[in-house]
Amino acid sequence: MNLRKYLKVYKKFLHTSLASELEYKTNILVDLITAVLSLIGSIFLLSIFFQNNGSIGGWEFEQALIIQSIYTILNGITNTWFNPNLTEIVKHIREGTLDFVLLKPIDSQFFISLKKINPSGFLEIMLGFFLLLFCIRINQINLNLSFLTLSLITLSCSICILYSLWFFISTTTIWFVKTWNAIEVLRSFLYIGRFPLNSFSFSLRIFFSVFIPIAFITTIPSEVFLGLSQLWKILLEIIVTTVFLITSRKFWLFALKFYSSASS
Amino acid sequence: MVQKNIIDVRNLSKSFDISSKEPGLKGTIKHFFKRQTKSLKVIKDISFKIKEGEIVGFLGANGAGKTTILKMLCGLIYPSEGSILVSGYLPFRRKENFLKNITLIMGQKQQLIWDLPPIESFYLNASIYDLDKFEAKSRIKKLSEMLEIDKELFIPVRKLSLGQRMKSELLAALIHEPNILFLDEPTLGLDINAQRNLRKFLQKYNKETNATICLTSHYMKDITSLCKRVICVHEGAISYDGKLDLLLKKLSPVKEILIVCRSEEDAIKLANSSFTVKNKIKNEITIKIENNSITSSLKNILNNFDIEDLFINEPPIDEIIGKVLIKKDYDI
Predict the structure, then answer these.
(1) Is B179 helix (H, G, I), strand (E, B) or coil?
(2) Which of B62, B182, B218, B303 is the most buried (most CB within 10 A)?
């Protein structure tokens, strides 16, 4: 893979999609307001849960806020990259414009995963990071190199798992054509990721760890921030991420063999 | 100079699983729970070769399989049986060097970024094809001059007319200077002038770069002005592969000639001679003459009869080609 070429193309992707989005200023403004209101609403909801109980599943409100901040960062990443690109796969397949992507001398997964960005998602990412910094302060977490490295690794793993899951579902469009519902189900499961995994029953915890790996997406990174995570969990997260990334990639390449293009 | 085959297709077949649904609510419910699919062979054991620099037109009715053939040639659809070699590559592997050699233009689909001026899409494509900025700039300049769209480069795509958009699509698809062009109804929806300009451009591009062009179109003018060779596809099989003028001669072996005689007597004399008469009204008579004897027959008429005027009527090409679309086999 020619890294220089891919960086150059990505620069162009950023430029063209920003230019496209900036054509509609009001839309961006509405998106920005929605991001701020959505975060305020989420924190308010969380505070209601903790109003009568000091802790839920062993998590204090201040600690649970860390999960909220990671969720906000991930939601921002979803809105910036995954939502504009991966929902577009459905359109590409229904209308047959995937033909243009497949005939370009560039990796098709790279193209369809990164071609667009939604700049208003950046605000959500920034808000998530501000909240995280606030949480680090109120939870009196010591910032050191190993802590930062582990946080970065687990957060990157969360992003990769989320991307793989979303990409996997979008790929099924090649057979089923319409898969909006499956993506909506995934998004609603992610809302659950705003709450500590321990606050759910044992069977639900198993479900959210094995079938929909919410635990790996928000809870484990949060545990790292609080110094509660064990090494085996982090290693497991890295393994799960690798498996998800490889499987979704292989699944995409396999699915393309069944792509029949839309009729003219 | 002997030109090599750039496309070699042997015994190519393609089947699709197609689901069918009965009408009405009952049919819809049945279709939802138990989908009935059947395998449909849309391309049936076809073989052909195309030489470098050739412009070949694919003719056929809607659903005959022309687009499927083009999509298999450029590697978008896996063939079910048979082999395809394009420029020495197996298309469906979509190797980088193969993709840099080809392009696909579809009249009804677009790749330009809707909200931005076409120039942005051109530079994006240039980076995908790994062209440096100066190279990209000079190619955009050259192609935009050829296509006469230098002014439209900076206007958002959504504000361009269909003709201007199609020209921009062409530029976006040709920025990497491919040597094989697959064009699927490129003039669809364009007005007469835009169609003519596009054809002129394709002729010029072919002449200057010796690019091979495979074209499908329902506009006969596209085929007659661009293609010397046509491949007729009927229900997934090739019904004719050869020169267009040969096909036209075969399908239309006689010409109709309207002769205006100076007197009705001359018209009667002509009607009673050896020519096949289609109709006769007073001193005007329409006769049928075979293509291969047209010169000698006209000489004979002009020498032996007192003629005021005559008109040679060619049957409309759409009518002739229309016959190809519904017939299974042409043995020429």
Answers:
(1) coil
(2) B182
DSSP secondary structure letters along A11-54: HHHHHHHHHHHHT-HHHHHHHHHHHHHHHHHHHHHHHHHHHH-S
Q: What are the C-alpha distances in Å from A86 to residues A12, A18, A241, B220?
A: 19, 17, 19, 40
- Whether residue A103 and residue B74 make contact (CB cut-off 8 A), yes or no, is yes
Question: In whole numbers, what is the pLDDT of chain B averaged over residues?
Answer: 86
Cβ of residue B67 closer than 8 Å to a chain A Cβ: yes
pLDDT at A180: 63
Predicted structure pTM score: 0.80
Tell me the pLDDT tens digit for each residue of A23-82: 777 887 888 888 888 888 888 877 787 777 777 767 778 878 888 888 888 888 988 999
Q: Are A241 and A221 in contact (CB under 8 A)?
A: no
| Residues 233-262, chain A, touching B (beta carbon < 8 A) | 257, 259-261
CB contacts of A12 in chain B (<8 Å) are 123-124, 127
ipTM strictly over 0.90? Answer: no
Q: Which amino acid would we find at residue B137?
A: K
Report the amino acid identity of residue B163.
G
Asked if the C-beta of A23 comes within 8 angstroms of chain B's C-beta atoms, the answer is yes
pLDDT at residue B284, rounded to an integer: 87
CB distance B177 to B206 below 8 Å: no
Q: Which of A11, A13, A97 sits opposite B109 (nearest CB)?
A: A97
Q: Is residue A96 less than 8 Å (CB to CB) from chain B?
A: yes
Tell me the residues of chain A between 48 and 77 that have a Cβ less than 8 Å away from chain B.
none
